[in-house]
Amino acid sequence: VFIHKIDGLSEEYKYETFREVRQRVQDELSDLDHGDRSVSYYQTSIFDHSVFEAMSKVVQRLLPQLPAMEALLNKLCSSCRIQKAYLFDTMSKIYVATDASPTFLRDYEVCSDYVDVIVDIKQIYGWHHRHNSQEAADSRPASEDGSSQDDGQGSAGAEIGESIVTYDRSGDTYIYAREINDHLSLLCVIGKGSSADKRVLIDYNVGILHDALLQVFRV
């Protein structure tokens, strides 16, 4: 149940409204002999990312792969001392999975805004060029033994690169972003005292996560 436009209410009236809506829904379910049903309630506003976060919770309930994805993200966070990890649907900005650590709206908002950046530069550095590279490879003339000729550049130029940027003025917090495939992006919040300076370790573990996630969805 989504309770919209809570931004226009005071804290006291917001709580009363939430309690009233919850009670009315429970009464309606009881009248229909469904009082034992579990119902989730989300307070949303158009002035923040609460709608996207609420929709994320709904979508996660529909994914049979959710336990496997959460386990992989938990392992990544523990291995690299990552503060928070999200797996986003790139186009909708809904996160389909996250690790078990507490979710803070500020971290989610920053990661969600960073997904916008990924979408904006997707035509330059994204999967569109990887597909074009594959089409170009398919169109290369074949050699006498049947293999296609390479121009020496290979497909490395079409690979998706990771990025790590500072979004906190103190310089203690970073965002690590990597596209998993054409639809999913991994966003990690790396806080103070983490292994943000150990880029090779993070790249290695994210590479393993990348392959594991592709295997999960392939199954």
From TrEMBL:
<dbReference type="InterPro" id="IPR006762">
    <property type="entry name" value="Gtr1_RagA"/>
</dbReference>
<feature type="compositionally biased region" description="Low complexity">
    <location>
        <begin position="144"/>
        <end position="157"/>
    </location>
</feature>
<dbReference type="GO" id="GO:1904263">
    <property type="term" value="P:positive regulation of TORC1 signaling"/>
</dbReference>
<dbReference type="GO" id="GO:0000329">
    <property type="term" value="C:fungal-type vacuole membrane"/>
</dbReference>
<protein>
    <recommendedName>
        <fullName>GTP-binding protein</fullName>
    </recommendedName>
</protein>
<dbReference type="GO" id="GO:1990131">
    <property type="term" value="C:Gtr1-Gtr2 GTPase complex"/>
</dbReference>
<dbReference type="Pfam" id="PF04670">
    <property type="entry name" value="Gtr1_RagA"/>
</dbReference>
<dbReference type="GO" id="GO:0009267">
    <property type="term" value="P:cellular response to starvation"/>
</dbReference>
<dbReference type="GO" id="GO:0010507">
    <property type="term" value="P:negative regulation of autophagy"/>
</dbReference>
<feature type="region of interest" description="Disordered">
    <location>
        <begin position="135"/>
        <end position="157"/>
    </location>
</feature>
<comment type="function">
    <text>GTPase involved in activation of the TORC1 signaling pathway, which promotes growth and represses autophagy in nutrient-rich conditions.</text>
</comment>
<dbReference type="GO" id="GO:0005634">
    <property type="term" value="C:nucleus"/>
</dbReference>
<dbReference type="InterPro" id="IPR027417">
    <property type="entry name" value="P-loop_NTPase"/>
</dbReference>
<comment type="subunit">
    <text>Component of the GSE complex.</text>
</comment>
<keyword id="KW-0547">Nucleotide-binding</keyword>
<dbReference type="GO" id="GO:0003924">
    <property type="term" value="F:GTPase activity"/>
</dbReference>
<comment type="similarity">
    <text>Belongs to the GTR/RAG GTP-binding protein family.</text>
</comment>
<dbReference type="GO" id="GO:0005525">
    <property type="term" value="F:GTP binding"/>
</dbReference>
<keyword id="KW-0342">GTP-binding</keyword>
